[in-house]
Every structure is written in structure tokens, then in C-alpha cells.
Amino acid sequence: MKIFYSIISLILLLTLFITTTVIAQIYPEDPETFFSPQSVADKVYINANVITVDKMHKCTKASAFAVKDGWFIYVGDEAGVQSHIGPGTLVFDLEGKTVIPGLHDSHMHYRLGARELYPQTPDIREELGKWASVERMQAVIKDCLATGKGIRVGKDGQQWLVLSGWMSDVWDPPVFHRKLIDEVCPDIPVYITRYTHGSGCNTKALELAGITKDTPDPEGGHIKKDERGEVTGEFVERAPQQLLDLIPPAPPYTFYEDARNFVEGQHLALKVGLTMIHEASQTSYNDAKKRLALYEGGIMLLRMNDMISPEAAKQLGAPINYNNRYINQTVKQLADGAMGSRGAWLLEEYSDYPGYFGEPRVTAEQIAELGTELIGIGYNLAIHAIGDAANRAVINGYEKALKNTGADPFKVRFRIEHCQTLTPQDIPRLAPLGLIASMQPLHAIEDMHFSPARLGSERIKGAYIWRTLLDLGVVVSSGTDYSVSPYNPFYTIHAAVTRQDRNNNPSGGWYKEQAMSREEALWSATWGGAYAAKMEDIYGSIEKGKLADFVVIPVDILDKNAIADEDLWKIEVDMTVIGGEIAYKKPVVVK
Ligand SMILES: [Zn+2]
User: Fold this and answer.
1) Same domain for 342 and 482?
2) Where are the alpha helices (DSSP H) in 360-408?
3) What's the domain count of the chain?
């Protein structure tokens, strides 16, 4: 019966969204006629403050534009747009509002619906971007014990409380210890993931798993010990398998739940102006097939550049581009872990954890081999690299793969995800190799609380350096790594420009010399994303001949008199348009 209702719900969802279905956006067969001054538009927009983002790091302005079959056929002024208005053309007066190209998140984990609307694993953070205090962590644990939230029951009947989102580096002292959980939950095992790059547990969990001070480190992970050599309950990167084996998995999503999470989740993204996301979760072959089914059902509004696993790429055999809506052409890999958990792979030991260099996950040789193979079937690579050793391995591997194949680096466009710490020797190597720096401005203002201690005063100068990379001609495409950071692209633009958090800390900005201009921040979130998706010829700016994705906002984002730097993150979207169709419109409040 439950399955019956699930199927009915899915059909309802499909019919609901089929009305806003994907319209034909294959590039016009006869572009000369299609984009000519006589071509009649479906929709014309006038009286707009259009920021076109049509030049490298720069933006010019227009006041009117015309859209046909999902493409911009004219961008200019009111006089010029007249010839595109026919008897059936809808003309909209934007009343002076600002129009920017559709926004990209060049690196996110698309779990908006699953995490924001239907969470299976409670997060101890009150909100993303705001780390939880010890008191907050303990309060959430107490609440879960009282309500049953986050409790999973294993086959043996053993209850486990599984949570996410802890980060102890902001505590005073910045040390996680199992006793902090024992104080509020001594009897039920508790396991908290530290946003995928590490985890922590209480004493009960250690006892059940039989982990003691004599337990060896797992492959790719590290068991932390206190000054007396006792296990603290914190695991850097991978936790011991004997512990993971005991934790009951969350129930798998049904197809209906997957579709629901996707559809309802995408409206959260559209509401903040996102029109394309680059999904960085190493999508499997089966999950890529599921996404194709959503596309075919007409319920995929957001454009998605899906980064898949190496196995999925080999199974698929060639990149996929469904109508510029669902694209998979990139394989995701990881070269190391995260900075916060000390999983980042460094050339020299951690400044605050002597003798420890982080967790390498791949060698330059392996990258070169995989890169060579993937170039052969038309795919490229996007590799997570945080530490300077990881970034060097990735650059060396990419360099070798390009040399092996003789491929044009600017056509291959290998990507470095995060590209967080570079040595002075490696910084100039990115631009000539055509490497894309897929960076997350929000990470700088969230990591500033612990990165200086991890890296020390010299190495930190090579970290979060988007200004330096832009100046060297590297394409920096910005993203959030949601759910590590919040998915709102205006938060990203604010962080890129101010190098401050949303409470204006630190005053003057953190290494402010690495800030972007507003033009660059907008460029990085639009054209930069389209370039990273190999789509800049048809996407990423408001220009004739490009896909008609745009966002209407109430203020001129480039005008310091209209909005101060510190308020950039507060911008709310009036309308998000994808392929000429309204995908989100701010509700009108009737007073
Ligand atoms: Zn990520």
C-alpha cells in the first residue's frame, strides 16, 4: 500500500513539474536567422539594469534583452529590442531592477532536500557556517535522547545515536574529548561525523568496538590520543573499521524519496539564484541513471554538471550532455582530507601537531594514469586537494597526463577542487597547464579560526589565494562545498569581496589583499562556473547567442552606493529564470 501511495505521489510530482518542463534548447540549426534582428522573441525585458558579465573579470551594462526558445537573441537597449517584438511577444517592464547571469555553485554536494527538508542524521549546528559550541553539542544530544531523533537501531537491537557537523577547533581549548559526550550520554554509543573528514565518539562506542590505546591506526585514518596516550574518541579522516561496522546505516532512500528530495531541494537553490550546480559527490553509475530519469521526467529545472566516479565514467564510456541540462563529463577524486580535521596532506609537518603530515589518498602517478585514461574517453578530472603536498601531487599528475596524451590543456580543463594551499613554487604552474581553481570563498572565513595554527605564519600566505591566482590568469570558479558551508551564492560573493564573516570579522578582512573585486566575484560565480563546465561559448553571461539564464535582484550589486560590502550577503532574489522560463519568483506579500 505504501508503495502504491509513493507511486501516486511521484506521478503527482511529475505532473506538477511537467508544466514547467524543459523546452528545446539545442543550439539553433540556422543561427543566422534565429539570432537576426528580425527574429521574433517569446519574451522581451525592458527598463532593466543588466550586468552582462561579457568580458574577462569585467562587466558592461545593457537595459533591454530578448529571449526566444530559451536563448538570448538580443542584448542592448530599448530602441534595439523593438524589432524583436511581434504580436505574440510578452513584454516585461523590470522597473529598473538589476539583472545578472544565472549563478553557479561550482562545487556542492546536492543534498539540499535530504539535508534541509528531510534529514536522517541531525546536525549539531544551529545553522550552516556557525560551528556548534560544546554546550550546543550536549544540548542536541540530550534533545535527541528525549525525542528519538538520530537514534538508529542495529540488527542486534543496540541503539546508536548518529549525528553530524561537529568542529572542535573553535572551542576553548580546541580539543574534542569523549568525556564531553559521556557527561550527557554515558550508556548509548554516540558517533558524530565531522563533515565527512573525521569523526568522534563517546566511551561507550569505543568499548563496544574494542578500541584501546593499543589499536593500530586504520588505513587512511588516525586515532587521536591525549598526552597520557589515552584514546580521545576523535578520528582524523577514516575511523577504525571495527567501529564503522557496528553503526547501523541510515535506511536507503526509495526512488520516490530521491525524486522528492531532488525536486523540493532544487527550489531552495532556485530561490537564492542558482541556475547550475556542479555536483561533487562522485556520483555512481546507478545514481547517474537515476538523475537521467529525473531529467527525462521533466522535473530537472536546475542545470547540473555531475562529477562522477571513475568506474561510472568507464561504464558510461563517453560524456553525456542532455540538452545542456544534465551533463556529466568530469570524474571526481580526492587527493587528501580536510584542513580542520588535519587530514590535509602537507609537505612539512603540521605546525600544531608535530610529526604529522595528514592523509594522502592518491599519488601523482595514479593521477597521471587515470588522467591519461580519461582523456582517451573524453572525460576530465576534478580532484579535491587541500594541503600543499596534495596540490603538488595533483599538478604533477595532471602535467604528466597532458604530456602523455599531447592533449590541449585548455580543452581538457583539469580542475583542482578547493586548491587551498600552494607552495610559492607551485603557484605559477596552474595557468600554463590550463588548470581551473574551483575555490570556496566561504572556507577562508570559516577556516580562519584554525588554519593559521595548522599551517604557521609562512605557509598560510599560500592558502586561499584567489586574488593571486586571478592575477596569474587562472580561471577561479567559486562554490560552497555545501553542506560544509551554506549554499547561498551571495554569501560567497560577500566572502570573496570582504574576506570577513557575516558579523564583519575580522575588521579590515582576513588577508584582505587576497580579496576579489565585486566584478571578479560575480564573474567567478557566473562565467567562471560556465567555463569550468566547458560551456562558456553558450552560457555564463547575458549575451546574444547564449542560454537565457538570469537572476533579477532588487539592487545593483556593483554599486557601492546602492549596497555596502558588508551587506552583499543579504541580497534576496526576486526572480530566477532558466532557459527563458521562470523557475522561481519571490512571492508577492499582500498587505
Ligand atoms: Zn566537496
Assistant:
1) yes
2) 364-376, 388-405
3) 3
Alpha-helix residue ranges (DSSP H) falling in 435-560: 441-447, 451-459, 466-471, 489-498, 518-525, 527-532
The 3-state DSSP class for residue 173 equals: coil
Q: Are residues 343 and 433 in the same domain?
A: yes
* pLDDT digits 0-9 by tens, 98-131: 999 999 999 999 888 888 888 889 999 887 667 8
Identify the DSSP state of 353. B
CA 383 to ligand 1 centroid distance, Å: 10
DSSP alpha helix (H) spans, 272-302? 285-296
Domain that holds residue 438: 335-516
- Same domain for 426 and 509, yes or no, is yes
Same domain, 402 and 550: no
pLDDT per residue as tens digits for the range 132-173: 999 999 999 999 999 999 999 988 999 999 999 888 877 888
In this structure, the answer to whether residues 279 and 419 fall within a common structural domain is no
338 CA → ligand 1 middle, Å:
10
What's the CA-to-centroid distance between 482 and ligand 1, angstroms?
A: 7
The residues near 469 (Cβ < 8 Å, ≥ 6 apart) are 419, 427, 430, 437, 439, 476
Same domain membership, residue 173 and residue 291? no
CA of 90 to the centre of ligand 1 (A): 41
CA distances from 440 to 138, 182, 351, 427 (A): 30, 35, 23, 17
pLDDT of residue 203: 97
Contacts of 130 (CB under 8 A, 6+ apart): none
Q: Is residue 529 part of a domain?
A: no
% pLDDT > 90, the chain: 79
422 CA to centre of ligand 1 in angstroms: 18
For residue 305, give the H/E element and its range: strand 303-308
Query: Which pLDDT does position 527 carry in this prediction?
Result: 97
Q: Are residues 79 and 186 in the same domain?
A: no
Distance 479 CA to ligand 1 centre (A): 10
| Section 430-442 average pLDDT | 98
Residue 332 near residue 313 (C-beta atoms within 8 A): no
- 95 dihedral zone (left: phi>0; alpha: psi -120 to 50; beta): left
87: exposed, middle or buried (C-beta count within 10 Å: 0-12, 13-18, 19+)? Answer: exposed
CA gap 434, 415 in Å, rounded = 9
Q: Give distance in angstroms: CA of 281 to centre of ligand 1.
A: 7
Tell which residue, 268, 214, 223, 266, has the closest CA to residue 243.
223
CA of 108 from ligand 1 middle (Å) equals: 6
Asked whether residue 12 carries a pLDDT value surpassing 90, the answer given is no
